[in-house]
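Hey, can you fold this one?
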Amino acid sequence: MTNEYLKTIIIAAMILSANVVTAQKAWTVNQCMKYAVEHNHDIRTSTLDLDNYKATKSAAIGSFLPDVDGSIGTQYNFGRAIDPETNTYTDVSTFYNSYSLSSTLPVFDGFERVHALKAAKADVLMGKSSLKQLQNETALDVFQAFVNVLYYQGTSLMAEEKLKESEMLLHQTEVMEEVGRKSLADVAQMEAQMAEADCELTRQNNLLSSAMLTLKALMNYPLDDSLTLDNGILFSWEEGDEPKAEDFALEQNAGLKKAYYSTKSSYHNWKQAISALYPTIYVGAGLGTTYYKTLHSQSAQSFNHQLRNNMGEYIAASISIPIFNRLSSINNIRKAKNNFLKAQEEYEKKRTELYKLSAEALQDHQGYVKETRQMIKKVAADSVAYMLTKRKFEEGLATAIDLKTNSATLLNSKASLLRSKLMAILKRRLVQYYFDETVID
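Sure. Predicted structure:
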C-alpha cells in the first residue's frame, strides 16, 4: 500500500468522522425555538403586516405636506377652431402648448390628520407587539414539544432498561429452576413480565416518534431529517431566584401590549371620525404659461418670449362645510366609538386573564419544584426497596409478583420524577414569559 493511498484513506475517514459529528450535534431548546421563530410562516406573515402598518404611518406623515402637481398639455388644431389671440374662428392649423404648476395644503381639517397619525403610530406598536406575541407563543409551543420529547426519551430508556433487566431475571430464574430453587410457575411469571416489558418499550418508542414529529412540525423542520436533542435543561429545574407576586410586570407582556395599543388606535379612529363634522380649510397657489403658433406662419413670437409674457400666477383659499351627508358621519362616529369601547373591554379582559395565568404559573412552578424534591427521595427509597425484594427473590424469600410490584413502583416513581422536573422547567419558562416576556434566552 503506497503512502498516497494511505493518505487518501485517512483523509476520507476524517471527513466521514466530521460529517457524523456534525449530523449528531445535539440541539438545545433555545436553538430549536430560534429555528422555529425564523422559519414559522405565520411569523413571516406578521412581519409583512408590520411593514404595512409602517407604510400607513409614512402616509399619515406625508398628509401634512402640501400636494404639488405639474402638468404639460399639447394641442394641435386643424380645420375650424377659435384663435386664442383674437377669440375669433379661423380655419388655419395651429399648435398650442400649456404648462402649469400648482400646490394645495389643508390648513384645518378638524384634526383628522393628527388623529390619523396617532392611530398609525399605535398600529405600528400594536404590530410589533403582535409579532412579539406570535414569536413567544411559537417558542413556548416548541418548548412544550421539546419537553414532551425529553419525557418520552426518558420513559423509553426506562422501558429499555426494564426489558434488559427482565431478560436477565428470566435467565436467572431458568437457571434456578434447573437446580430446583424455583418452580415452572416462577419461570412463566418472569416470561410474562418480559413480554409486558417488551410491549411497554414498543409503546414508549411509538409515543417518542409521535412527539418528535410534533416538534419537527412546530419548528418547520424537515420531517425526514434526524434531530438530536440536548437534555441539558433537565439540570435547570430549580435554578434562579423565585419571582414574587409584587414583582409582576404584566404591562410588558406582548399580548397585553397588543391589546393596549389596539385601544389607543381605536380611540384615535373615533376622534378621526368626529373630525368629519368640522369644516375643512384649504389654501393653494399656482402658476401657468402657454405657447401658441399658427403653423406655416413665420410671424409667431419665440417660445421663450411667449413663456415669459403668458405667465400667470394665482393664490386661492377655500372652505368646505359639512351640512348633511345622509347621517353617514354620525353612524361612522357611533361605530368608531363602539369599537373603542370594545377594545377597552378586551384590554381589561386580557389583563385579568394574565394576572390569573401568571399567578397559576408561579404557583405551579413552586409546586413542581417541591414535588421534584420529594420524588428524588421517593425514587431513592423505592430503589432500595426493589433491590431488597430482588435479593429476597434470588434467595427464594419473595415471589415473582412481589418483584413485579416493586419494579412497577420504582418505574412509576422514576417516570413521575422526570415529569416533575420537566414540568418545573416548563412552568418556570411560563413565569419568565408572564413577568418579562423573555422566552428565548
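The longest strand covers residues 94-108. Let me know if you want another pass with a different chain boundary.
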